[in-house]
C-alpha cells in the first residue's frame, strides 16, 4: 500500500507554507459544505458549481499520484475531529488544562444538524470519544476506545458556543477510564464515560 509518506518531502520552509495553505483549503471546503446546505435546491447556479468543483478536483488529482490509501503518521492536523487540515473535522481545538483535564470550544453549523436546529447525536458521540481519549492518551503510544457510553440530557443547539471537558477517571494497567461533558449555557447537554485500552505490544498478541 502506498502512503503519503512515500512521496519526497518538501524543504522545511516550503512545508510550513504548504501546511498553512492546506489549512486555508480546509477552511474554504468547510465553507462550501456549509453553503451547499443553505442554497435553494432550484438555484441554477448549482449546475455551474458542480462544473467548477469538478474542475477543481481534476486540478488536484492530476499532479497527485494516485497513492493515498492511508496516512501512516497523520498527526493531529489530519484527524477527523480536531484536524485543521481535514475539511471533515469541525474542527474542535483541544487545550490541556493545568489540572490534567482537556477542554475544547466548538460551535456547530448546519452540516452537523440531526433533529431540526440541533446537533446530530452521532457527532456529539464522536466529539466525546475524541476529547475523552485526548484526556487519557499516554505519551508512550496509541490508545483505542474499547467502550463509550453517551448520555443525551438535552438537545445540543446549533450556532451556539459549546464547551467540552474531559478528564481521566481511573487507570488500571493498560485500561484507562475517562469521563466528560458537553456543556451549553452552563448546563450539561451530553455526558460520557469511556474505557480506553493501550493495545498489547504486537509480539504479545
Ligand atoms: C490538548 C491535548 C492534545 C492531545 C493531542 C491530541 C490527541 C487526540 C487524541 C485523539 C485520539 C483519537 C481517538 C480515536 C479513538 C478511536 O477511534 S480508536 C478506534 C475504535 N476502537 C477500536 O477500533 C478498538 C478495537 N478493539 C481493539 O483493537 C482491541 O479489542 C483493544 C481495545 C485494543 C483491546 O485489545 P487487547 O489489547 O488485545 O486487549 P486484551 O488484552 O484482550 O484485554 C485487556 C483488558 O481489557 C479488557 N477489554 C478489552 N476489550 C474490551 C472492551 N471492548 N470492553 C471492555 N473491556 C475490554 C479485557 O477484558 C482485559 O481486561 P483485564 O482482564 O486485564 O481486566
Automatic annotation (TrEMBL):
Domain of life: Bacteria
Entry's EC annotation: 3.1.2.2
Originating species: Rhodococcus artemisiae
Gene Ontology molecular function: hydrolase activity
Primary location group: membrane
Coiled-coil intervals, chain numbering: none
Domain Thioesterase: 118-182
Protein name: Acyl-coenzyme A thioesterase THEM4
Record family assignment: Belongs to the THEM4/THEM5 thioesterase family.
Matching InterPro entries: HotDog_dom_sf, THEM4/THEM5_acyl-CoA_thioest, Thioestr_dom
UniProtKB keywords: Apoptosis, Cell membrane, Cell projection, Cytoplasm, Fatty acid metabolism, Hydrolase, Lipid metabolism, Membrane, Transit peptide
rRNA processing listed as a keyword: no
Amino acid at each position: 500500500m502506498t502512503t503519503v509518506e512515500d512521496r519526497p518531502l518538501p524543504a522545511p520552509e516550503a512545508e510550513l507554507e504548504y501546511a498553512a495553505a492546506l489549512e486555508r483549503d480546509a477552511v474554504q471546503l468547510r465553507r462550501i459544505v456549509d453553503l451547499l446546505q443553505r442554497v435553494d435546491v432550484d438555484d441554477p447556479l448549482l449546475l455551474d458549481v458542480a462544473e467548477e468543483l469538478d474542475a477543481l478536483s481534476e486540478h488536484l488529482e492530476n499532479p497527485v499520484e494516485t497513492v493515498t490509501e492511508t496516512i501512516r503518521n497523520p498527526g493531529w492536523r489530519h484527524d477527523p475531529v480536531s484536524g485543521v487540515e481535514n475539511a471533515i473535522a469541525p474542527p474542535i481545538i483541544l487545550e490541556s488544562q493545568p489540572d490534567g483535564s482537556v477542554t475544547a470550544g466548538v460551535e456547530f453549523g448546519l452540516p452537523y444538524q440531526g433533529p431540526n436546529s440541533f446537533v446530530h447525536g452521532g457527532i456529539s458521540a464522536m466529539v466525546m470519544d475524541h476529547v475523552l481519549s485526548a484526556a487519557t492518551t499516554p505519551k508512550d503510544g496509541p490508545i483505542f476506545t474499547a467502550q463509550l457510553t453517551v448520555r443525551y440530557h438535552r438537545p445540543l443547539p446549533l450556532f451556539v458556543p459549546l464547551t467540552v471537558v474531559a478528564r481521566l477517571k481511573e487507570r488500571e494497567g493498560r485500561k484507562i477510564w475517562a469521563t466528560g461533558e458537553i456543556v451549553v449555557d452552563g448546563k450539561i447537554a451530553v455526558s460520557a464515560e469511556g474505557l480506553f485500552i493501550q493495545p498489547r505490544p504486537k509480539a504479545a498478541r
